[in-house]
Design a protein that fits this description.
This protein is of the alpha/beta class and 379 residues long. The protein folds into two domains: 29-240, Alpha-Beta Barrel (TIM Barrel), CATH 3.20.20; 256-358, Beta Barrel (Lyase, Ornithine Decarboxylase, Chain A, domain 1). 29% of the residues lie in helices and 25% in strands. Strands 1-2-12-20-17-18-19-16-13 form a nine-stranded mixed sheet. An eight-stranded parallel beta barrel has the order 3-4-5-6-7-9-10-11, surrounded by five helices. A two-stranded antiparallel ribbon has the order 14-15. It is elongated. The termini are close together.
């Protein structure tokens, strides 16, 4: 995948080497991203902002996204791997806080995180003891956040067992607890989970243990519950405007795919085209092939949730279009795994020298359609 950060629609040649102009590319418009950063700052109020770079920055590229966010004043980052943390440090983000959002007892990973001066997560007894052992062996103190499970099951100490957390903390002399966090589910369970988290935090503090920065809200909760903001928020997909949105949230959808025309040919009236769902051409048609399909994330949606959802998906699929040199071209038939057919009759374009712009709906309720767009493409 080739990743490009750019201002709104400058010449693409100013960002990409000429020989790579038409590789499958995810383009991030800086103006839209700046808008979303401003909105996140407004929403956070006085809370700290952790930029969540999980999933390679939700498909935008963790490293360029982090560098851009740093320039916009964000100095705290969450990662999901030691490799991402290492890339950030190597790129010059040496003073910024990096929080590993994954509890592990793996000695090699913990050593990497310690060498990178990253903040670890402790969500199990084993992870806590392993981190303390490492710190003790190095005659140092390592910083960590406690992970609490309030009902999502993705990891962490059960919120209903704060006494076990207190007991562990008291047996970790070489670990400095600088934060405590949880994850919140949908709005139906959010209030209950937040209450359980607060009760666990209160119990830990009442036992005389430090909890540091308290954070619970990810992108979804940040938009829906001011009470969830606490000391800090974790902004991930909200930065790209590709989270589950709320009306009037002021966010802009960030990111569009760009590709090329692989081949063009005329097909006669009556010829069938398309994968799975064939379309019979009603007239002689100029058909272009682009090297993008559902394996690259194009047209990928959440699972169908009901009859009307299925009907809406069907109509959307029939109206699916992309832009070829700025002109709208209709997608013909069902998408292929790695190729898509376009009707370019009447559109000025040619093989290997025409620019294809692919976007997803700004009203999408899921980040799945764009966060993986082109991520698996082999160049």
């Amino acid at each position: 995948m080739y990743n490009v950060f750019k201002d709104k629609y400058p010449p693409i040649s100013s960002f990409v080497p000429e020989k790579e102009l038409f590789m499958n590319t995810l383009v991030i418009e800086k103006s839209a991203l700046k808008n979303n950063i401003s909105r996140v700052k407004e929403l956070a109020g006085g809370a700290y902002i952790y930029a969540n770079l999980s999933g390679d920055g939700y498909g935008a590229g963790a490293l360029p996204l982090a560098q851009f966010l740093r320039d916009e004043g964000i100095r705290r980052f969450c990662v999901d791997s030691a490799q991402t943390a290492a890339a950030l440090r190597k790129a010059g983000l040496v003073d910024e806080e990096i929080l590993m959002l994954h509890s592990t007892s793996d000695r090699e990973v913990l050593e990497q995180l310690c060498d990178l001066n990253a903040v670890c997560s402790i969500g199990t007894l084993e992870a806590g003891m392993a981190l303390n052992s490492l710190a003790e062996g190095r005659a140092t103190v390592i910083e960590a956040h406690l992970q609490i499970d309030c009902g999502m099951g993705f990891g962490g100490f059960p919120a209903e067992e704060p006494e076990k957390i207190v007991s562990l903390i008291r047996n970790l002399p070489n670990v400095a607890v600088s934060g405590i966090y949880t994850q919140l589910a949908s709005k139906h369970a959010m209030d209950v989970q937040l209450s359980a988290f607060q009760q666990a935090v209160n119990a830990i503090q009442a036992a005389g243990c430090e909890t540091g920065i308290i954070h619970a809200a990810g992108s979804y909760a940040m938009l829906r519950s001011d009470l969830s903001h606490l000391d800090a928020v974790r902004a991930g997909s909200v930065l790209l405007g590709r989270c589950r949105r709320t009306r009037g949230d002021g966010l802009l959808t960030v990111g569009r795919g760009e590709s090329q025309v692989d081949s063009i040919r005329w097909l006669p009236k009556g010829h069938t085209v398309g994968n799975e769902r064939h379309v019979t051409l009603r007239r002689s048609t100029r058909v272009a092939v682009i090297p993008v399909g559902y394996q690259q994330g194009y047209g990928v949606d959440k699972p169908i949730s009901g009859f009307w959802d299925a009907i809406q998906r069907l109509f959307r699929a029939r109206r699916r279009t992309v832009r070829v040199n700025g002109q709208r071209a209709r997608v013909l038939g069902a998408l292929g795994a790695t190729e898509t057919l376009l009707d370019v009759t009447g559109i000025k374009c040619s093989e290997r020298s025409s620019r294809i712009s692919i976007s997803t709906s700004s009203r999408s309720s899921s980040s799945s359609t764009i966060s993986h767009l082109f991520m698996n493409t082999t160049m």
